[in-house]
Amino acid sequence: MDDPEGASGPTIGCGDTLVATETGPVAFTNKVEAAMNALLKDNAATHGESGLKNAVAASDLRYKSSSVKGDQVTVNLTGTVMSGGTCDDPRIIEQLKYTAKVAAGVGSARILVNGSNIEELLSQK
């Protein structure tokens, strides 16, 4: 969503901001797993006329595990990251990280895809 002032949420690349959305009630034992699965299983690239975009929708990612150490959550995913380019890279990274850290209640997140940092994977594209 284009929001150069960052009024809707944290500012990320290309003038975008992160905006939290809600799903229906979900039963879970692991908040991080539930939140990541909700994001990863959402195949809609856009959400109605809201202007909200799901940059992760084109990727074929699956939740494998997560762990919290101190103020950081590490999430292990498997699959393939698909990016539309320069503006999608930070969208993908921050959607995954923000979802994980909010669900875990920590200040930072590390996302691994097939054992590699998401930033390294996307910087090669």
From TrEMBL:
SMART domains, A to Z: Germane
Superkingdom, natural source: Bacteria
Residue ranges of domain GerMN in the record: 32-122
InterPro entries: GerMN
Protein name: GerMN domain-containing protein
Native source organism of the sequence: Paeniglutamicibacter kerguelensis
Higher taxonomy: Bacteria, Bacillati, Actinomycetota, Actinomycetes, Micrococcales
